[in-house]
Amino acid sequence: MPRKHQTVSVLICRKESVPFNEINFLFQVAWSYAEKGLLVFILSKSIIEADSAIHFNSNTSRPEILQRIIFRYFSESSEVLQWCHEVHNRTKIPRLFLMSALESFGLSHEFEAVEICAALLDAIQFCSQCSQKCTYLLVSICTDKGDTYPSNLAPLFDRVWHLESSQCNKHTFFQMSPSVHGVPLKKLNILCTS
Question: Could you provide one GO biological process annotation from this protein's UniProt record (predicted)?
Fold first, then answer.
C-alpha cells in the first residue's frame, strides 16, 4: 500500500495491432477512482477523434462521480507541457492522471516523449506533496510509432505493462506482462468477449 507523499507511475505499452479500446479502459479506471472520491484528470486527444467510444451504463449516470473526472484535450506536446507547469498554480489537486496515446501528441523526436513524461511525473510529485496523499499516473503509448519509446521511457516509471492480445473463436484474450523496475512479474490474463 503506498504511503503518504508517494507516487505510483505506470506505462502501458501496446502494439497498434492489439484491438484494445483504450479510451473506454481509461474511463473505467477514472470512474473507479472517482467513485472513491478522488479527483481524476484525463489528458487526451479529443475522444471524438479516437476510434473508440466510452460505454455509458446505469452506473455511469451519477453526476457526483462524473464531476470528479476532468477531461483536458491537447493536440500538441507543448500544450501538455504547459498544462503540467500550470498544475503548480491550481486549487483543485488531482490524485490520478491518465494520459492516452502519448505518441499522438505530435512528437518530433523520441526525447519529446521523455520530456512529457518527466513533466507529468513532476506534476504528480507536486500534487502528492500538496495533498499529502499518494498520487497516481498512468500513461499509454503505442510502441509501433517509435521503436525506442519503451527503452527510453521505462526507467522513468515504477511499472511497465506490455499489452498483447490473441483471438480464440469469438473471444479476445488480453495479456498484460508487467515489470517493476525491469523485473518481470506474473502475467495477467483478461478475457473480453466480442
Answer: double-strand break repair via homologous recombination
